[in-house]
Structures are given as C-alpha cells and as structure tokens.
Amino acid sequence: MKTGELNDKESATGSRYQLVPITPKLIAMDRASASAPMIDPALTAYKPDSYRIGPGDSLYITVWEHPELTSPAGSQQQTAANGRLVRPDGTLFYPYVGLLQASGLTVEELRTAITERLTKYVEKPQVDISVVNFASQKVTLSGAFVKTNPQDITITPLTLSQAIGSAGVNAQLADLSDVVLRRDNHEYHLDLDALSRSREGGQEIYLKGGDSIYLPYNDRHEAYVIGEVLRPQAIAFKTGDLTLTQALGRAGGLNQTSARGKSVYVIRGVEDFEKAPATIYQLDGTSPSAFAVAGQFSVKPGDVVFVGPAGITRWNRFISQLLPLSGLISNAANAQYNLDRDSQL
C-alpha cells in the first residue's frame, strides 16, 4: 500500500497505516471489546462517619436555664456573635470548663465532655451543641466550573454529584469524560457522561475534607472535520461520545456538488509509527445504510475526519490550476513572437 495517498484499489497491508472499512461487523466487534465504565472500589467503599469538629469551626453551646453561659454577648445578639470558635490548635474555651481539646471530636462527644465538667458547678446541666459555621473541612474545585468556591463538609454528607451540581458546569468549555477526583495523593479519573448511562452511575461517591475536583477544559480535546464538507472545523468534545454522523452533521454534512461518497475517512494516528501503524477507517457513503452504521461509529479525540473530492471536482481543480499556467505560457509565446517580428522590421 502506498503511504502517500489513499486509493480504493490499494490493500490494507501498508507499514504506516491500515485501511479498515466501517461495517456493522466492525461496530459489533468494537462494542464487544469495549469495557463498561467502572468506579474505583476505593471511592464507593468510603462512607462518611459522624462529623468531627476541627479548627475554625464555630459552635453554639446551649446550657438550658443558664443564659449567662449560653449567650455571654447578650440574648439580643446574633447567634454567630455568641458562637465559640475552635482555635487553630484545636482547643476550645468555655466558662467553668476551661480549655479542652475539641478538634477530632464529634458533636455528641464534645457535649458529653462539657456536661461532665459543668457538673461540678451546675446541677444536672442540660447541654446542647450545634455547629453554626463549618470551616475546617473543605472540598476544592477547579477547571471548567461556573463557580469554583470551596465547598464545606458539614454534618450532612456531601456527594460528588451534589458538589458538581452546586458549582455548575460550563457547558461550552467543560469535558465531562475525564473528571479528576484527587484524594490522599491519588487521582481517580471518572467519565461522568458514560457513568450516567450505566449501572455504575447509580452509586454515590461521598466526598471528604481535603478532596479536590478538577473538571478539564475541552480546548485540547478535539476532532477535526476537513475536506468536502460545508463547514470544515474542529469539534470540541463535551463528552466522550461523538459519532461519525454527529461529527459530519456539525460540519454541515457532505458537500453534495464536490464530495465523493466513498471517500469518507476517519484517520486515527498513533504515538509511535515504528511500533504500530495508524488506522484509517473508510465509510462507503453511497450505501443507503452507511449513515446508520456511521451513527454507531465513535470518533475519538485527535481523529481527523476527511471527506475526499469526487472525480469531476478533481478534474475541475486540475483545470483551474492549469488555466493560469497556460495563460502565462501563451503570454510568453506572444511576447516572443512580437519581439521576433519587431526585429525583422
């Protein structure tokens, strides 16, 4: 097979690329070999425990029938003004209790600790604690979100879908096929679009403090449609699922006056031509069932969809390129004739 051009009569035994027809059999083989999207078991295995207090959290501590302990700033003040801040070292000061280590305790464990210490000064103290400001555990977001503000881990567990929903996805710029969740120095890659259509998509992924979510941009995740189409262009991937029919449709379809139906190619390169040949998939667009097959053929990021010209188009282009050249030759010949005739006069 020649490596410089595509020809219908060439075999698929070239050393640099192989020509593969797009047929129902190829689609069936691709589907059989494709693996269903999976979620790393380490993500689904994590279940959040009771919320544990941390530095920066603000607590509202109520001692019933003792307003001087509950609202030292006055009952007319906002709840936050009477909040007790957990210090950077994790300690908390409370009247008659003194300093105690609050960080790492659940709300119930801290309530028990304060109750036990107050017993020396208050008969049968009734203590209640609520967190009025969560600040110690956060999830950070970056990339193609509408809002990238950190989100707090609270008493109510936070899931990945909730975090993404609250942040909002930039539909024009985001690539949902490779969301990255970083946790404990490990990266988990998730195809949220594929997962949403699979059984795995029903599993909740709970987040914990320190997690970070990166939603990549699609500016480097493109396929290219060129040749005899109405609008040659680069097509950005918003999801991992783009069919050949969709790619051609976004480019306006085949140019009916210049495109050759049999010359629809999807060129898929490789990183190292020395180790493996590139693959060129060919669609016979003259067949009535061709675009039904094309609707099931997946285009990958980096693919080049090329629609070749029909024979008459090639001839017209040859003529259009030849005519300016023939005009120059004719002008040169006329000039030489005029010079010869002038020299004879």
Automatic annotation (TrEMBL):
Where does the Polysaccharide export protein N-terminal domain lie? Answer: 47-131
Its placement in the membrane is given as:
Multi-pass membrane protein
- Which Pfam families does the record match to this protein? Poly_export, SLBB_2, Wza_C
Q: Which UniProt keywords apply?
A: Cell outer membrane, Ion transport, Lipoprotein, Membrane, Palmitate, Polysaccharide transport, Porin, Signal, Sugar transport, Transmembrane, Transmembrane beta strand, Transport
> InterPro entries per the record?
Poly_export, Poly_export_N, SLBB_dom, Wza_C
The answer to whether the entry has keyword Transmembrane helix is no
Q: Please name the GO terms of the biological process aspect recorded for this protein, alphabetically.
A: monoatomic ion transport
Taxonomically, the superkingdom here is: Bacteria
Task: Quote the cellular component terms of the Gene Ontology held in the record.
Answer: cell outer membrane; pore complex
The protein's location, in the record's own words, is: Cell outer membrane
GO molecular function annotations of the record: polysaccharide transmembrane transporter activity; porin activity
- Report the residue ranges that make up the SLBB domain in this protein: 137-214, 223-307
Domain Outer-membrane lipoprotein Wza C-terminal, chain residue ranges per copy: 310-324
Family named by the database record: Belongs to the BexD/CtrA/VexA family.
The protein's name in its UniProt record:
Capsular biosynthesis protein
Cite the source lineage.
Bacteria, Pseudomonadati, Pseudomonadota, Gammaproteobacteria, Lysobacterales
